Amino acid sequence: MTRLAILCKVVLPVLMLFFVATPISIATTYYVDGNHTSASDSNPGTLELPWLTIQHAAETVVAGDTVYIRGGIYNEHVHISNEGNATDGHIVFSSYPDEVAIIEGTGVTESQNGIIVDKSYIKLFGLEILNWNENGIWIERAGYIEISHCEVYNVGNGIGMIEGVHDFVLNRVEMHHFDLYGFDASPYGTDCYNGTFNDCIAHTGRDHDQNVDGFAIGHGTQHDFTFNRCETYDVYDGFDIGENEGRRHINIVLNRCSSHDCWNDGYKLTGHGKLVNCLGYNNYNANVAVYWDVNAGTADLYNCTFFDSEVFNVWVENSSDSLLMYNCILAGGDNICLGFEQRDVSRYKGDYNLFHNDDLDRAFVVGYEDEFSLDQLESGVWTTYSGQDAHSLISQSDVDIFTDPSNFNLHLRETSNAIDNGTSVGAPSDDFDGNPRPIGNGYDMGAYEYQGPVGVFGVGSEGRIPNTSVLFQNYPNPFNSSTTFRYILNEAAFVRLNIYDILGHEIDTIIHNHQDAGEHSLNWASTGLPSGVYFYRIETGGFVHTKKLILQK
What is the DSSP string of 133-179? Predict the structure, then answer.
């Protein structure tokens, strides 16, 4: 027998066994189109012969597959049957490009949850989910979930998670007009963990008699959640960070978030929460409330701005609760700026803060017995009493601090004493708008780093000059029909500046040419666009940055 024959006799059976035992997954793209005249779940699911229902797709597709759902209303409940995996990839359910698939619950009797996900490695993209009496999206016992550019509204609850959901990401998801919560991760069963929220919004509770939460991380042993640039308003509690049953360091971080116009608390911290570059304003009871439950709560606040609450600006319920506060601005409170429910401030650590209060005589209150006026803060009486805030400052008027406090424009006024008087301790590298810190001779207090008046950044000028390109927040924002974009190029570059809708579709190109280094600005008219949230993105090759703009007609 020849050497080749021997090789074939030995090797070929092994190769045949390998191919039989190890199936090769081939990712496939399918289509659902309820408006197509030939749509049927007996079709092959092609663009020309699409499936009729999303549920059929959910029962058919496997790891690595993508389902494109053509625009229109799908009056059906969807329960995803199969799951993806780390090797073959996620199963993706997406609206067809430039179209919106609407999953609508009116009259559906099978379930009052719009979508149920109890399988791992699932992605949902660009869907609109409404009119469900329970949850728009319900997720349990699953991991590696991604939900992007979706809108969930007119529901009992927005997005709920239980039974150990982990390693999930929500990108640009809007939840509104709900009864109990926009988002909630409950500890029922096992703890949920490793969740990231990017540019998400939860707003408008429908029932003012309910304890409605914007974003809730409930009680239990849950841990490791990050909120980036998220916003909540017109609910009972904006961010409700629950207790962790004795685990003090549970890694819940809120970065560049905003909570405002809440019926109770903007940030309710029963567990351990870290707030960086956050805004809280016009919340009724407190902008920040550190609550006692079974175990002590903890709040770490860095470069935050809290303004205009009716009862407390920041409130600490129990002497075992800890408050750490640096580079923060507390201003415009109607009653008490900083309140400690018990007569003990031993667990408060803070400095380089700026304080103002509408009631000048009741700036700080400890146990409702020891009270300190703004003048006493300035003269050092509070520092002697507490051992804290040796470098903190006071302001007699909020208009001396902010650009336009009456309209909640909390950017720093050019003459504000918050400018350059902060500390590098815990200071982030950027501010609420994403602009670099520090600019000038030192770090600024509050969520915004003062950028200087228009025109101060010309090439070769003196003053607060950044060493990288900068994209500023558009002004005004929100805007009615037109707004101004301003940016600085640290070197000559080819510039692209585009506008996108909330689903990531490009809707306008503002700039597409070569520009010199220095400061640039231009006005943009939103002709023909409906009210809503949009994004603008600048690309120069070495610099890419995106910001949010809001059109209100």
Answer: EEEEEEEES-EEEEEES-EEEEEEEEEEEESS-EEEEEES-EEEEEE
Neighbours of 79 (CB within 10 A): 16
Could you please report the per-residue DSSP string of 247-260?
Answer: -----EEEES-EEE
pLDDT in tens, 327-370: 999 999 999 999 999 999 999 999 999 999 999 999 999 999 99
Distance between CA atoms of residues 203 and 208, nearest Å? 13
CATH topology for 469-553?
Immunoglobulin-like (2.60.40)
Fold (CATH) for 25-205: Pectate Lyase C-like (2.160.20)
What value does the mean pLDDT take over residues 44-55? 98
What is the DSSP annotation of 268-280? EESSEEEEES-EE
Tokens 């603008």 label which residue? 536
Gap between the Cα atoms of 528 and 538, Å rounded: 22
- The SS3 assignment for 32 reads strand
Contact 65, 30 (CB under 8 A): yes
Q: Which among 525, 539, 516, 533 is positioned nearest to 483, based on CA atoms?
A: 525
Domain spans in the chain, listed from the N-terminal domain onward? 25-205, 211-450, 469-553
pLDDT class for 385, splitting at 50, 70, 90?
very high
Look up the pTM and report it.
0.81
Q: How many CA atoms lie within 13 A of 482 on its CB side?
A: 6
Q: Are strands 213-217 and 193-198 parallel, antiparallel or unpaired?
A: unpaired
Q: Are 372 and 364 in contact (CB under 8 A)?
A: yes
Burial class, 22, CB count within 10 angstroms (exposed 0-12 / middle 13-18 / buried 19+)? exposed
Pull the structure tokens for residue 107: 């009259």
SS3 421: coil
The closest alpha carbon to 278, from 53, 433, 66, 110, belongs to 433
Neighbours of 181 (CB within 10 A): 30
In the predicted model, what is the mean pLDDT of residues 275-295? 90
CA–CA gap between residue 253 and residue 503 (Å, rounded)? 26
Rg, Å, the chain Cα set: 27
Of the candidates 176, 261, 184, the residue with the CA atom closest to the CA atom of residue 215: 184
